[in-house]
Amino acid sequence: MLADRGYDHDKHRRLVRARGITPVIARRGVAHGSGLGRQRWVVERGFAHLHNFRRLRIRYERQPEIHEAFLKLACAILCFRRLPSF
Fold this sequence. Notes:
The protein is mainly alpha-helical. The protein folds into 2 domains: 1-36, no CATH class; 51-86. Helices cover 55% and strands 5% of the residues. The protein contains 4 helices and 2 strands. Strand 1 (2-3), helix 1 and strand 2 (24-25) form a beta-alpha-beta unit. It is extended, with a radius of gyration of 17 Å. The relative contact order is 0.10. The model has no long low-confidence stretch (mean pLDDT 84).
């Protein structure tokens, strides 16, 4: 699990390890340069792609099932756009 400095607390690390997940959390007070941002950038870029869909950026639906359906549809569209064209 990748996390930024906002989650730098032993409580969070213990909870994640209890679930069998290895935490990679940046430490406060330590200089930048761990390379963690390079890995997190991929996730942040994915969220940015999803926010290009207005129905996901501003949640209009009250029912979570409908919102989840739009999220899955957006993911399918993004994957389809990444396919090579023949």
